[in-house]
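Today's session is about reading a structure prediction critically. Students often jump straight to the picture, but the first step is always the sequence itself: look for stretches that repeat, for charged clusters, for runs of hydrophobic residues. Only then move on to the predicted structure, which in these notes is written as discrete structure tokens rather than atom positions. Here is the chain we will use throughout the hour.
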Amino acid sequence: MQNIVLVILLILALSLIVTVLMQRSEGGGLGIGGGGGNMSGRPPASPAAKFTWILGAGFMAACLALTVISARNAANDSLLSGDLTPPAAAESDAPATPLGGNLLPPSTTDGPTTPPKADE
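Below is the predicted structure for this chain, in token form.
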């Protein structure tokens, strides 16, 4: 359900962006463009403006729905409710190698690396 609401939210967001960019700027917000000496209140809403309001309301509804769904899913998850012990290490057939001796790789100035001879 969460994925469906997320897809709807993304479609609404893209539609809202395209709709806003397609509208003509009236310049009322910053005092730029349009307007003359006889400015009267607010012009009647165009169909594009009404459609933008509908898309905006749908976007907000989808955001709220996604928040409610996420909160319900997160209500069941808690760090303290489950077993906090780490999973057991995977058992392998190879014996553990001891960490004794020189762990650095041999340098070019060292002699040949030969294993020590066993006593016979």
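Discussion point for the tutorial: The mean pLDDT is 75.
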